[in-house]
Amino acid sequence: MKLEQNELSALFSSTNLPDIFFTEYLPEASGDYVKIYLYILFLSKYDKDIKVNDLCKKLGLPLKVIQDGMKYWEDQGVLTRKNTGYILNNLQEKELHQLYKPKVALSAEQIQKSAESQKKAKTIEYINNRYFSGLMPTSWYPDIELWFKKYDFDDEVMIALFEYCFDKSALHRNYIQVVADSWFKNKIKTFNDLDLYYEKQEKLNKVANMISKKLGLSRQLTQYEYAYIEKWIIDFNFSFDIIEIALKRTTSKVNPSFDYIDKLITDWHDREFKTAEQVNKFLTDMKQKNKNIKELEKKTGYQKYDQRSYDNLNNLYANKKTAD
CA-CA 20 to 30 A from 236: which of 18, 21, 173, 312? Predict the structure, then answer.
């Protein structure tokens, strides 16, 4: 790999690094990739052939990391591959071109300032000052404008989005995109929508913690287990009192699963029960029915009765240990 440069004395020379690297590229690059870039930037001043193996030895990095790092910077447009090696691109010129290109394509109608666009501009500036100390990368401006259009968030929700990611120490594009997608799927557009969403999540988390405690789980619930709880609380609108009845019926099971609990709760929902009292009455009646059947079996010696389509569930409700 050949790096082109102006020959200078290493003792008296210096390596210039543009500020755009710190604001635009440094936050999302891994430490090893930054190390590779800085060393290549330094070597670019010296007209020598640099081999990948030499970089491995000099930087103390595996060959795969060097190759992946070169590919990463190439994908970022920082390096351009040539037949004889690579050229380091001018980062400032690259960013200027990216910012200028979309602007020349704007129509007169798009350029015209409206009250709404001015409000969004103030929101973006607030985000810049609040979460980036006034040093937000320039490429974030069109990204935020795109998110406004894509998700139809109001200004307060957009600020809340950055606040949430900032508190998670994850203020980078990929994470923000994931959170924004999640909010959009939950039909969040206004701050009131977001407030209701937070209330729902708080309720779900509270119930999830109570269920974990009741079941003696020392681990966090899986995504699929959490989906069951959301189904019981949001879709069925059941209180924890009803869920707890199902949890108590797992005492005869060695390893009770959420699928087992869901079958009980779903059956109660299908029977249109709304309260814990209705569920308890149903279970009491079923227990008495099973008792009556057993007494009748003893008297007659006949042990086959039509238990209708819910026979399997009745066996579950019998609250006795059975071989799995």
Answer: 312
